[in-house]
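User: I want to check something. If I give you two sequences, will you return the structure for each one separately, not as a complex?

Assistant: Yes, each is folded on its own. Here is the first sequence with its structure:
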Amino acid sequence: MRRSLLNSEKFVAYTFLLPALLFLAVFCLYPVFYNFIMGFQNMDMMNLRSGRYTFVGFDQYIALFLDPTGVFPRAVANTFTYTIFSIIFQFTLGFAFALLFAKRFPLSGFLRGLLMLAWLLPHTVTGLLGKYMFSTTGIINDALRALGLLSENVGWLVEKDSALTCAIITNIWVGIPYNMMLLTTGLLNIPGDVYESASIDGANGWQRFSRITLPMLKPTMLTVVVLGFINTFKVFDLIYVLTGGGPVQSSEVLASVAYRYSFTSGNFSKGAASANILFIILLLVSIYYLRFVKTDSEVM
């Protein structure tokens, strides 16, 4: 009787899960699987309708890295540069704000909510704001000229030496509230009794921070860094709106170059291969994160 009841409950549970599983299979798993297949074919605009594309192995991947224009290797380097510098500054500044807003003071809630507005904006809107701010007649040039740091306006987004830097600065501005929110939650979850006990034992502020706050915040910090890496590494909309990958492909990233191969050049297999490399890198990061979380939970 009890066993049949359990089987009945499992049947009901799986019945409710079935629509979600079907949705994931159709709209997530199938596109990923089909994209991997395309990466090993020679599908383009010329043979798409006829279906006369064939298996070419790793030729598309080799062609990406041996491209005489160097677009794909530059996109890989730009993606890592964009991600690493964004994460460093987002996390550092977000942590500083989290430490500030973990304290209770007048208007703390209002100011924290005000900072969250940057994260709530869609990336397309953020890209447009950045485009106006970094334009030759934008607020960045006006501020630098007012401070005497510039003698004339600079086209930050049309200079290949500064376009990617502008994208990084814009993304940092977006990511700080996200890091602050998660880290503040982690800080507030640390029991206050631990700090009180440490103070009674004579621990100073730095000792409480280094021996209590950082160790107990370690899982949250890792989660913030990994999620930030994944969200930043797959960037497309911000780059596309802000710089379009230019000038002279100086701000191309993996997502934008995959889009360009597929929908501008019409080489779907090369675009799929680019997207597959992006997917594999993020999959490896996710696997490392899951293994770390599992090991950390076993130790605890």
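And separately, the second sequence with its own structure:
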Amino acid sequence: MSEASSPAMIEAVGLSKYYGAFVAIENISFSIPKGQIVAFLGPNGAGKSTTMRILSGFLAPSEGSARIAGLDVASERLDASRKLGYLPENGPLYDEMTPIELLDFFGSARGMNKKLLKSRIEEVTDLCSIGQVLEKPVGKLSRGYRQRVGLAQALLHDPEVLIMDEPTAGLDPNQIREFRANISQLAQTKTILVSTHILQEVEAIASRVLFVHEGRLLFDGSYNDLCKDGSLEEAFYKLTNYGRPQAQEAGSA
């Protein structure tokens, strides 16, 4: 089955979020098919995190709806959460716990039986390269290792969909390279939405780009289409500084 005919795994339909007169996001719609890696791009404060929190069910929209693997995240919250792994920016971790304790806690909270949980902890430990810090308190870990532990937690229940908010922020070049390798491996079995404002990340990890600015979706299309008139940096500058272009309806890459 091609991507074009694959079922939608992440759907946003007319999502808006208002805080009084402040518009965080407005009328954002897109659909991501199974097996696609999509970069969610835009400047700080553009609305990326708000959209991702709504998609993950952590925030209710003022208008619109969100679905994960065909499940409405508002009315089918628990079922949708079983399909989703979510890594928020600077996601909260229990500093007093060790990674092994934290993974055991989250797995038990998800109702995973001991045999399955043990197997999954071994798998995510290897995938995220956290074996050497499993017994060290999370509060004592470097930023890079904390990100790896957060990713391991998001992957623990082997979700079909993975949403990550600025996962490489604060990482050094070696850690970013390792992250990219992890994404390439995960992409073989998962649908992935990654938000970033780091331009170099987009070309490295995704073929499709969603670009938001001032709470509105300005571009949905391939990386090549976004950069057809120059570099990604130039496209970023034009979209954020030369008014608000009409949202494009480019097909999925």
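Because they were folded independently, the notes below concern the second chain alone. The beta strands are 8-19, 22-33, 37-41, 63-68, 71-72, 84-87, 161-165, 191-196, 208-213, 216-222. The first helix runs from residue 48 to 55.
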